[in-house]
UniProtKB/TrEMBL annotation:
Similarity field: In the C-terminal section; belongs to the class-I pyridoxal-phosphate-dependent aminotransferase family.
Organism in which the protein naturally occurs: Paenibacillus phoenicis
Entry keywords, A to Z: Aminotransferase, DNA-binding, Pyridoxal phosphate, Transcription, Transcription regulation, Transferase
Protein name listed in UniProt: PLP-dependent aminotransferase family protein
Keyword Cytoplasm in record: no
UniProt-listed InterPro entries: Aminotransferase_I/II_large (IPR004839), HTH_trans_reg/aminotransferase (IPR051446), PyrdxlP-dep_Trfase (IPR015424), PyrdxlP-dep_Trfase_major (IPR015421), PyrdxlP-dep_Trfase_small (IPR015422), Tscrpt_reg_HTH_GntR (IPR000524), WH-like_DNA-bd_sf (IPR036388), WH_DNA-bd_sf (IPR036390)
Region (Disordered): 81-103
Amino acid sequence: MNIRPKPAEPGRIRYTQVYKYILDRIHRGDWKAHDKLPSVRELAGELQLHRLTVFRAYGLLKEQGYIYVKEKSGYYVSGGRPYTDPAEPEDASNTRSNLTTGGAGGTTFNALARHGTGHLQNTLSEIHQIPAVYSFSQVLIDPNLLPNLFLSDHVKQVFDRYPKLLGTYSSVQGDEELRELLCADMQRKDKLQVSCDELLITTGGQQAIDLLAGVFLRPMDYVLVERPTYSSALDCFRQRGARLLPVEIHRDGYDLDLVEGYMKRHKPRMFYMNPTFHNPTGFIVPASQRKRLVELAERYGCLIVEDDAVHDVYFDAPPPPPLYSYDTEGWVVYLRTFSKYLAPGLRICAVAARAAVMAPLLTAKSLADNGTPLVNQKLFQHCFESERLQQHLEKLRTALQIRRDVMEQALAAGTGWQWYRPQGGLNLWVRLPEGLSSNQLLTEGVRRGLTFVPGTICDPLGEMDDRIRLSFSFKNEAQIREGVHLLVQLADELARGG
Ligand SMILES: Cc1ncc(COP(=O)(O)O)c(C=O)c1O
């Protein structure tokens, strides 16, 4: 088994796709009536395409009256041409540009089927489906660490209080009482300026990422992503035909000059980041960089999607304030899933966004499912507001810290293994001994009932085969010791060529 991102397909871009892309951007307001469009050379350079492909796309747009030409000046957006669905027109000759877009980040633009389907994958989910005794791939809390009895007693109380619960829809945006509660909590604990109208409840963090990708990304848009990062987000962006621009994340954050350079040159639509106990590395982007990142987002019109999935899972000190707390202009969307510490089965995530982002997001949510199930929201609300939650969180932090320590001790038995000690979160990001491949190790692991996440799928470039992500949250101490012992043994066998 070699769980890598699917090999880059020879993505041949038809001029009709470029036509659709330009039309989408006109519709989105990137280019308004009578604005000058980039020259053929500029656009071909930006999209990494052959000039002829762009030339033909402009030709078709002109023929259909969407744009016009000014002698010796260039192409301009027309005034009165009504916008219609930018489906690609039939490419009668089926002629294709014979050039591919490498795309920054090694993401070859897939010759997407119409409307961006045909590129569906979720590699992480495939790994999670492999049955394993020692499952270190799941970023999930061991159910034994959750207050299960309390939760089940609670279910009855909630139904007593709301006898018509099963017969009622939630509003699309989410139950108002729950949003009020979460708002007050975010204001009090995290000093976030957020109102009830600025919160949306989604069915887990994954749905929030998917909705944002659907609303804001069009084929060939650039997206800044951390290297490495949460791979299911990468899969969402790839499925939309976006091009990934990887930004390395280090223990002291990002290279902000590089981020600014990318923003200036490529005008990315979005920067998807996980700056707090980052998945998979555990790094924390320092407070000093957070403010600056928001300024850059404002200056270059790039939406920051701040995924704060394990904000409350810290071991010693709470993390710095979210980037969202510095945002005054609406360039940050903030995702706080609760799947990682309370009742993951309920799939509750709060998304904070200002009006301009919230409005299309609400439409997308209504199209996706018309609102997260009310039962889940009410059960969650009553757990969240109980005193028991605070006690649970404190106990959970201690239990997870112990598991982290146990995993580190077990790993220390192997030679040449290196990792960063995270101060929160659920993972260790481990560098393997020289010459060992994470994918080969996973193949052996699966045979012996052990799984983890190979570095290749967390890397937008598909490299990092010398890294693995090990989650210490799902298995108990004894299983962690046994599993890591087995892992080190398998690595030794592979190193000896066995
Ligand atoms: C960084 C990050 N974002 C989002 C998610 C998805 O969260 P949820 O389980 O709430 O869909 C995960 C899950 O592992 C995650 O690690």
